[in-house]
Amino acid sequence: MAKGVRGRTGRGHLAIGTFATGTVSLYLKNHRDLQTMKDFSCSRIRDGLGRDVLRFWGASAIAELVLMHADQERRPELFEAIEHGFDALECANSTQVPTATLSGIWQITRVLGFEPQLKTCIRCDLDFVEDEVGRFDFPAGGIACLECSENIEGPRIGPVARLQIMQLVQSRIDDVIDYPKKHLAVLSQFLSYHVVSRPLKSLEFIQQLLPEDVEPQ
To answer: Is the domain of 145 the same as that of 118?
Structure first.
């Protein structure tokens, strides 16, 4: 938009919010990159995303990833993933915010076409043994089995972590995940290899916000 976004939208509506959803009317002129907004009818403001810093930056990371990678083509599945990510973050309790953040970003990554290979070894394509510990092969884009991971420098991924990543990617996880800081490091490295040309600033800030992972005694 070239004009009208910062002002009120008419008929008593508020101006566009950072993470709001609604219907925008604009004055469209051909052969112009920037258009003039007429009004915006907000259907969901999502002011709950501002309740705490981590929740806000989780939503910011989702938005930053989309702005860095998405093109201008119509992508309804991407829009739905963004909506789902924002809504999950807004509704999550404070202990679930790291999980909702990771899940929202992994969902966007999947919809953009960069889903990691997690069910079978990225190198030999064999199924993982139930309790097998492999390593994440970031250049290849998935987890390598124990035998194939001898010369891989990526982090060790056990069966629990592998299952949690699969659940995060598919948005099928509601519980608090183990070691959110390590999960965030895996996600950041995967994005750097396959999705974005530079690290997401939002994820770097979230990494500082998260408490250190507690190792079992």
So the answer is: yes
| Dihedral angle, C-alpha 27, 82, 76, 112, nearest 10 ° | 120
pLDDT-based confidence at residue 216 (cuts at 50, 70, 90): low
- H/E segment holding residue 38: strand 36-44
Q: Which domain holds residue 29?
A: 1-45
Amino acid identity of residue 11, one-letter, is R
One-letter amino acid for residue 112 of the chain: L
Does the predicted TM-score (pTM) go above 0.90? no
Number of domains in the chain: 2
> 51 or 43: which carries more pLDDT confidence?
51
Quick one: 64 and 161 in the same domain?
Answer: yes
Ranges of H-type helices in the chain: 53-69, 76-91, 97-111, 159-170, 180-194, 201-209
Q: How confident is residue 1, by pLDDT bands cut at 50, 70 and 90?
A: very low
